[in-house]
Amino acid sequence: MPTTGRPVRVSTRVNLVVDIGAVISGGPARPVSTVTGMTQARPTLVDVTMPERPEAIVLVLHGGRESSLAAVRSTQLAVLRMIPIANRIAKAGAGRLAVARLRYAVRGWNAPGLAPVRDTEWALDQLTARFPGCPIALVGHSMGGRTALRAAGYPGVQSVVGLAPWLQAGEPIDQLAGRRVLLIHGDQDRMTSSRATAALSERLRSAGIAASFIEIRGERHGMLRQPRLWHDLTAGFLATTLLTRTDTPHGETTDPSAPNYLRQVFQGQARITIE
Q1: What is the pTM of this model?
Q2: For labeling, which of 61, 148, 178, 214 is most exposed (least CB within 10 Å)?
Q3: Which pLDDT tens digit goes with each residue over 57-91?
């Protein structure tokens, strides 16, 4: 059963039409215009795979909008595109990872409240209560990538993956100290900026944070041109950063199907381009 969090108030639309002639003549008003009402929605934590004794936790975060109080629905594309990524991570974990997807209460980033960050912290509270002491990884696409980066200061977070993240100038980075960060972006993305992602990776490295940037040529925001590549890069990176044994050679991954590009990541290469 999915776990739901505290309710938040979200917007709904109620159509009202007003018969202007009736109003002028003193008659009863009839609905005609659209007004915004309020209802309640809750964040939802969806289990992907939950071993009895996992070695680590992965939380998968979907995208959204800059501003919106509309409730998130399970059928929205931003939510659906994260399902195969979560499943691929679970497969790479081979029964050693607890993997969950978070569905936010509302669709918007909604600064300064940062609704998805608050929902992510709630979800991590639930997961760490079930599996205390486990290291954590966050992975998100678009607004979810920004959310993962912002929430990385949560105790126990070890690694973060941002997929085509939505970023703005001056993103905070102090919370990423001590984390491993992988940022992946398509050079043909018109929704979010691959240049901003590359610049953030450079800032992180300048601050002594282990970060790599992978640019996929010809790829757009939806990660649809080479979906398996996105999935494998993400799963291989997380399986390695969370499950690597102390005797694993430097530059090796624990996922045998992980792309060779990850070898370059773990050898410390700053930027990798994939045609």
Answers
A1: 0.85
A2: 178
A3: 999 999 999 999 999 999 999 999 999 999 999 99
